[in-house]
Each structure stands twice: as structure tokens, then as C-alpha cells.
Amino acid sequence: MTIQWRYEQFGAVGVMAVTGYLGAEALPRFNGATGWILTRATTVILDLSGLHGWSDAGREAVSAAVGQFADQGRTLELAGAPMIDGDADHRQDLGGCIGAPVVHADLAMALEAHGISRQRSTVMQQRRGVLL
């Protein structure tokens, strides 16, 4: 199983929504997507609420992406990260992210933190069915 992803821009904030399972076989696709997005936006919200799960390698890839964005003076925020063994506290500890990422419970809260309305976040969530 692999992932699908979709990117949408909301003013100065980009949203990359990921669905599927973020495991070892999905890493080339994930890394390619985050690399592509890194060239297009300063602040990106990585919506992980559509993931069925992720492996240690998947979590490490997310941590690496946070670091890559930070190295370029950009921000990769996380929204809706899957729980590990039912423990929501992992959202603050993603395997040594360079520069602790901003973590939101879900996409709506992440967008609201940037002044983007719930109505627009609902539209984004409805579009999840059309992923790359």
C-alpha cells in the first residue's frame, strides 16, 4: 500500500493532504511530493488525518521533511497525525524533528490558526477524494 497526496494553496499557506499508509514503499512518493512543495510555499500544513497509519520509517520521513523546510527558512506544520498505540502525546515527539513542528489536532484548527475560515477548510476536506 502506498499514499496519495493533494496540494492546495490558501493565500500564503499551502496544504498537503496525504492518504493511505506512509510506510517504506511510500517514501519515494512522499519525499518527492514534499520536495516539490518545498519550492512552492513558505508555510505548509501537512494534513495526515487521511492516513490509515504510518511506520517508523514514515514518521522519520515526516521528521526529515520538517527539517528540510526549517533548513530553507520555511515551516511545515502537522495536522491530524495518527496516534501511536493510542497515545496522542506522540504528536509532540516525532523522532527528533529539527525545530519542533507546530502540531494541530486537525486541518480545521490548523487553517483557523492562520486565519482561514472553517468554510474554506470544509471545502478542502470535501476535495480529499481527488488526490494525486
TrEMBL record:
InterPro entries hit by this protein: STAS_dom_sf
Protein name (database record): Anti-sigma factor antagonist
